[in-house]
Design a protein that fits this description.
Layout lengths: L1 E5 L8 E5 L13 E2 L3 H8 L5 E5 L23 H17 L10 H27 L7 H16 L3 H6 L7 H19 L4 H13 L9 H4 L7 H7 L2 H10 L6 H9 L20 H16 L10 H10 L6 H11 L7 E4 L3 E7 L9 E7 L4 E9 L9 E4 L18
Antiparallel strand pairs: 1-4, 2-3, 2-4, 5-6, 5-9, 6-7, 7-8
Helix pairs in contact: 3-4, 3-6, 4-6, 4-7, 6-7, 6-12, 7-11, 10-11, 11-12
GO molecular function: phosphoric diester hydrolase activity
Pfam families: DUF3391, HD_5
Organism: Halopseudomonas oceani
């Protein structure tokens, strides 16, 4: 039997079936949790969640069990009422798609995106921990994360994808999965996939690297070049992840496929099965692009991330690696000069791309901050190259490694 109670009535031994409120407020990545100890109880009590639904058939009941409604009166919702409420909530979330979602500015959505990534990082970290401990993993909490990603991209298609690149080397293993999920959702939306297919693409991105949960941590986080033996171990992660996901209930076939085949290459030189061309599924071809882009733009234990514009340029030169049509779509999504790219203007000034233009990949908004001619910093100025009164233009990208600038991302991330 399900009962809705205030969090202050929780105690050790209860089974939480559902946290009421926004998923971003929840203290755990899963929607269900058995309160096994005081630490778990305190985690819930210290969160911003005010009400939960408990299942008394799986854990302890409350004494007298008074349940509160909005007016403060005692009320005990039936299982049917709780189920109806869940369906209504899911329908409301599903309706927040396309034009029905209120659009958000880049600055506003970046702040929400940072919240999503903080919660997503903890979700993946806990999921990896559960896998290493041999615990069963339920995917419903992960579906809520993918829903949040999709809604963010509905409000602003650039913010979350831009924030996805910002991660320290210590965060890479966990945030990489969230970043690839965001990139996959973005590509699926551009491909005009159905809402169900978009969410499936996001789930595929989120779970594509599950095999890394069972890789030796000394190899996974090695700060130097891998030996041939270590590289062979790492190459086993797609098959190991696929094996893990087969044991989970309700994982779609497309998600399993991306996990197994996201390291295949269009020319047949990838692994583990050396598939080529259209023998690689559409989602797996998308996954290959998203996985590599996030990997090479991120700070890793053994190298610093590349500039986003430089990364796209290098990827474009890797003949036979990616589906060329999908790669062009990927560039269209990010822009020729993605947010965070260092560029040189015709005026001999340097700036960082802060937002893409709706009309042209060549006319983003830029934070200008340095004069090459004067060799000195300038007051930071935002210019919009799409403005008909703006005569300046980009003449090329610059490698941050060639300049002594630190923390360029501060020029586009809101404070």
């Amino acid at each position: 039997m399900l009962k809705k109670i205030p969090t202050q009535s929780l105690r050790v031994g209860m089974f939480v079936e559902k946290f009421c409120g926004s998923w971003l407020q929840h203290p755990f990545w899963s929607k269900t949790v058995l309160i096994e100890d005081v630490r778990t109880l305190n985690t819930i009590l210290q969160s911003s969640v005010t009400e939960v639904v408990i299942d008394v058939s799986k854990g302890l009941d409350v004494e007298a069990a008074p349940l509160l409604n909005n007016s403060g009166a005692a009320e005990a919702p039936s299982e049917v009422e709780v189920a109806v409420a869940e369906v209504e909530a899911a329908s409301a979330a599903a309706s927040l798609s396309g034009d029905k979602v209120h659009k958000a500015s880049m600055a506003d959505e970046v702040k929400r995106a940072q919240q999503i990534f903080r919660k997503g990082k903890q979700a993946v970290k806990d999921m990896f921990k559960d896998v290493r401990l041999g615990k069963a993993v339920e995917t419903e909490g992960l579906q809520q994360l993918v829903n949040e990603i999709n809604l963010s991209l509905s409000r602003n298609p650039q913010a979350l994808i831009s924030v996805a690149r910002i991660k320290s080397k210590d965060e890479y293993t966990y945030l990489h999965s969230v970043a690839v999920a965001a990139l996959m959702v973005g590509m699926a939306r551009l491909c005009d996939m159905t809402e169900e297919q978009v969410l499936e693409a996001g789930m595929a991105g989120l779970l594509h690297d599950m095999g890394k949960a069972v890789m030796p941590e000394a190899v996974l986080n090695k700060p130097g070049k891998l030996t041939d033996e270590e590289f062979a171990i790492m190459r086993s992660h797609p098959a190991e992840g696929h094996k893990l996901l087969l044991e989970w209930a309700g994982v779609p076939e497309a998600v399993l496929d991306v996990c197994l085949h996201h390291h295949e290459k269009i020319d047949g030189t990838g692994y583990p099965e050396r598939l080529a061309g259209e023998n690689i599924s559409l989602l797996a071809r998308m996954g290959a692009i998203c996985d590599v882009y996030d990997a090479i733009t991120s700070n890793r234990p053994y190298k610093a991330g590349w500039d986003p514009a430089e990364s796209l340029s290098r990827m474009a030169s890797w003949q036979g690696h990616f589906d060329p049509v999908l790669f062009k779509l990927f560039v269209r999504m990010l822009g020729i000069y993605p947010v965070g790219s260092l560029v040189r203007l015709e005026s001999e000034r340097l700036g960082v791309v802060v937002e893409q233009s709706c009309n042209s990949l060549l006319t983003p908004k830029i934070s200008v901050f340095y004069s090459v001619r004067l060799k000195q910093a300038l007051p930071v100025t935002l210019i919009d190259l799409a403005d008909e009164h703006e005569s300046d233009r980009i003449i090329g990208r610059e490698s941050p490694e060639d300049w002594p600038f630190k923390q360029l991302d501060q020029l586009w991330l809101p404070t």
